[in-house]
Amino acid sequence: VQSIPESLQKLIEEFTRFPGVGRKTAQRLAFHVLKNTREEAESLANAIRAVKEKISHCSQCHNITERDPCEICADPKRDRSVLCVVEDAMDVIAIEKTSEYRGLYHVLGGLLSPLDGVGPDDLNIQGIEDRLEDVKEVILATNPSVEGETTAHYLTKLLKSKNVNVSRLARGIPMGSDVEYIDEATLARALEGRVTV
Ligand SMILES: [Zn+2]
After folding, report:
1. How much distance in Å is there from the Cα of 169 to the middle of ligand 1?
2. CA of 34 relative to ligand 1 center, distance in Å
3. Cα of 151 vs its chain's centroid, Å
4. Residue 68 C-alpha to ligand 1 middle, in angstroms?
5. Residue 1 pLDDT > 60, yes or no?
6. Tell me, what's the pLDDT at 142?
7. How would DSSP label each residue in 120-139?
8. CA of 72 to the centre of ligand 1 (A)
9. How far is the CA of 20 from the centre of ligand 1 (A)?
10. How far apart are the CA of 105 and the centre of ligand 1, in A?
11. pLDDT tens for each residue of 49-88
């Protein structure tokens, strides 16, 4: 076997850490970078550096943003009486694409998973309670997975004692699916047909 130069080997290893990227794909990507011009490769490196330097979390909703508060929280046209609780920032992007929702978000930064040792203190849950003053409805838009259901149950109990309406996305979202991957039409229907819990 012909040995791969060390620096190229390192790049392949970095790519294998990407989700869904196996050894072969990682190798293809690394060779692609190698074939790039110097400018193209630097542009990739700069883009990676820039997301780490510029993006932080909104202090209100915990969504990813380049300024605080984020564009959604800062938008005076958004409906401040509705809060949609999601697992992560990719879910915000998916729901925004439906154009069905005009309220605010709250990004948990994960889901409750007692078996993996992820408890309420590991998520942005306390922050929800601090935002309830003007909120009339909280929509729980966690994935229909075991962790998503566990989280929704926990939040329902917590929020019901706070005098706020709690609703969940309508069924029709297949069990085990991911909010971020559901097609826009299905997600829009699930939002529209949300049920009070
Ligand atoms: Zn925000």
Report:
1. 21
2. 39
3. 15
4. 7
5. no
6. 92
7. GGGTTTHHHHTTGGG-SEEE
8. 6
9. 29
10. 7
11. 999 999 999 999 999 999 999 999 999 999 999 999 999 9
Nearest residue to 188 (alpha-carbon basis) of 170, 174, 164: 170
Ligand 1 center–CA 75 separation, angstroms: 9
> Whole-angstrom Cα distance, residue 197 to residue 195?
6
CA of 18 to the centre of ligand 1 (A): 27
Q: What are phi and psi of 43, to 5 degrees?
A: -60, -40
Give the whole-angstrom CA distance, residue 47 versus residue 52. 9
User: 133-182, pLDDT tens digit by residue?
Assistant: 999 999 999 988 889 989 999 999 999 888 899 998 876 666 667 778 77
Residue 172: the pLDDT is: 63
Using DSSP's 3-state secondary structure scheme, residue 196 falls into strand
